[in-house]
From TrEMBL:
This is DNA/RNA helicase domain-containing protein. Pfam families: SLFN-g3_helicase (PF09848). Keywords: ATP-binding, Helicase, Hydrolase, Nucleotide-binding. One of its GO terms (molecular function) is helicase activity. The keyword Glycosyltransferase does not apply. InterPro entries: GIY-YIG_endonuc, P-loop_NTPase, SLFN_3-like_DNA/RNA_helicase. Transmembrane segments: none annotated. Residues 28-100 form the GIY-YIG domain.
Length: 586
């Protein structure tokens, strides 16, 4: 039985006085409250909500809000209220019904006594507020959405918070002294590089807009930047956010459109950044490993645009210039987020330039590493395990307790299992390497992939495919999924990756590789890519696909020899898993 209650009323002085007569806890008790109106909402916590409401009514920004809700519970303490405040802000941001007015003063993931029990109560509070109309979607729908997963109000892990704090301290010192700087943040899949990038954009925008007359109450160390001196350093500052992949870029633009202080125009492709007339003070580059070099562009007109930007920025079209050079030329301070093991295309920035960026060390070049695994519930070891499995020095087969890792010999069975997982928890999708031509792109009635009598089509859209209405019936290619999370991933390792039994090593099959331009040579620069060089990119592709599933990964391998080579590494975990609950068909 829950002990909370929610008081509701208009956001006016008379209502505050009425509440004070009703319950002394409006003056002296930890509570959480929400103020809403005109599609905007503000969430806060306070030990004296009556005084806080009077402060808000004196604010030109908040006095326009019309409705007030106060969550009261005799068992609440400060830690519970901070956690509930963060819980509601994050879900409101992910729901999209209201624009969340809160500044990002720093939301951290802090444990406290009884937290698991309180979070069950939070779900009940959510449902009551949903009945009030503050939310349009269910809790699972929100938590499966990209608006939620990429929200700037995400709670940071301890190592993320330390990295953000160090980055900002160094950045402000460099701005104050007029010294240009570079920051590199490295991290494996699932360590939250994009979360950190979005968080930094919101935090810098909020510090820039902060009014010293406004009171900032937060126990986060990031609140130290909301004092006089820091906003002045950011006056007239121009911020930019670079995302190379179109699908992820469009998703982040949607997030920025729903977030006060941010604008979708801040989120750019490298080409848009290179063509921008202005210079940027800070450019944050997500997925830096997907910046491009001059060859193997995805579309013909981009070759000319690449050359035009080179001439505009450097006075000549040097074929060795890359989009990494553009970022350095167009900004004073750069923050790069990257994982070089996720390079998947011959047109990506060469590995030696990424290595140079990661290893350079001086006062103006700082490096950080994220380690906490936020995506895969198998833990931090899983990513390294997968990468080792896809190498010629495989690890000892092992299981991952609580993670549903399974191997399939029948494509129909794996597709049925993925559909069953989608009915249970949502966000279960089939993924594959680009080992079949995209016939259905021109013939909507055609099928692209046929395995074990199962006919399937590639993704119909390149933008936000994971959430598109037909995605459960399709197979997503690498370009639709890099940077996204799934609950379950059914990964088809196609015939582009084989096992050479005689040589005892993995091999690339060029005849079964259909990613346009991805394996092309660069004759203008005298560069020819060997099968071994493409093999490394294909291994990276499958490592990315195999690390998308938060709750589980299912694997099917097309090549017979490779199937037997990989079976022990993905079948081991199934021995610990009760598979009876996963049986289900359409």
């Amino acid at each position: 039985m829950t002990s909370f209650r929610i008081e509701r009323g208009p956001f006016v002085s008379a209502q505050i006085e009425a509440w004070l007569q009703l319950d002394p806890r409006f003056r002296n008790w930890p509570v959480v409250y929400a103020l809403d109106g005109d599609e905007q909402i503000y969430v806060g916590e306070s030990l004296n909500v009556a005084t806080r409401f009077r402060q808000h009514l004196a604010s030109a920004e908040k006095r326009r809000l019309k409705g007030a809700r106060v969550v009261l519970d005799p068992t609440f303490n400060k830690s519970v209220c901070l956690d509930l405040e963060a819980f509601l802000i994050q879900r409101l941001s992910g729901d999209g019904t209201y624009r969340v007015m809160n500044r990002n003063v720093g939301i951290s993931d802090r444990d406290y006594y009884g937290r698991a029990d309180y979070q069950k109560i939070f779900a009940d509070i959510f449902e009551e507020l949903r009945r009030d109309g503050l939310f349009s979607h269910s809790l699972p729908e929100i938590e499966n959405s990209d608006l939620f997963k990429l929200s700037p109000f995400k709670a940071l892990t301890e190592d993320q918070e330390i990295v953000v704090l160090d980055i900002l301290e160094g950045l402000f010192a460099d701005i104050d002294t007029g010294v240009p700087s570079q920051v590199v943040v490295q991290g494996d899949p699932g360590t939250g590089k994009t979360v950190v990038a979005v968080y930094l954009m919101k935090l810098l925008s909020d510090v820039k807009a902060w009014d010293p007359s406004q009171q900032v109450e937060s126990e986060s160390p990031l609140a130290e930047f909301f004092v006089e001196g820091y906003p002045e350093l950011l006056r007239d500052f121009r911020l930019g956010f670079i995302v190379p992949q179109m699908s992820l870029r469009k998703t982040i633009q949607r997030v920025f459109k729903r977030t006060p202080g941010l604008s979708p125009n801040m989120v750019m492709s490298p080409f848009e950044m290179g063509n921008a007339p202005e210079h940027f003070d800070v450019l944050i580059v997500d997925e830096t490993h997907r910046l491009r070099q001059s060859g193997n562009q995805p579309a013909g007109p981009l070759y000319k645009m690449f050359s035009d930007i080179n001439r505009r920025l450097f006075g000549a079209d040097d074929a060795n210039l890359t989009q990494l050079d553009w970022v350095k030329a167009k900004s004073t301070h750069q923050i790069y987020l990257m994982d070089s093991a996720q390079s998947i295309h011959t047109g990506d920035v060469p590995s030696h330039l990424l290595k140079e960026l990661m290893t350079r060390s001086d006062d103006q070049h700082r490096r950080y590493r994220l380690t906490s695994q936020m995506r895969v519930q198998a833990g931090e070891d899983y990513v390294g395990y997968v990468r080792a499995v896809l190498s010629d020095q495989p690890p000892t087969p092992r299981s991952f307790t609580g993670y549903d890792l399974r191997f399939f010999d029948d494509m129909s069975e794996m597709r049925d299992a993925i559909r069953a997982r989608d009915r249970e928890v949502g966000l279960a999708r089939l993924l594959a390497g680009f080992a079949w031509p995209w016939v259905s792109r021109r013939d909507k009635h055609a099928y692209d992939i046929q395995i074990d009598g199962v006919r399937m089509r590639w993704n119909r859209t390149d933008v936000d495919w994971v959430n598109s209405p037909t995605s459960l019936d399709e197979v997503g290619v690498i370009h639709t999924i890099q940077g996204y999370d799934l609950n379950y991933a059914g990964v088809i390792i196609g015939p582009d990756l084989r096992y050479d039994e005689r040589a005892g090593r993995l091999a690339f099959d060029r005849t079964n590789y259909f990613d346009p331009t991805a394996a092309n040579n660069m004759p203008r620069r005298g560069i020819t890519f060997s099968d071994d060089e493409i093999l490394k990119l294909v291994q990276n592709i499958y490592a990315v696909l195999l690390t998308r599933g938060m709750l589980g990964t299912y694997v099917y391998v097309c090549d017979r020899a490779l199937r037997e080579r990989l079976r022990p590494f993905f079948a081991a975990a199934a021995l610990e898993t009760d598979t009876s609950r996963f049986i289900g068909t359409d």
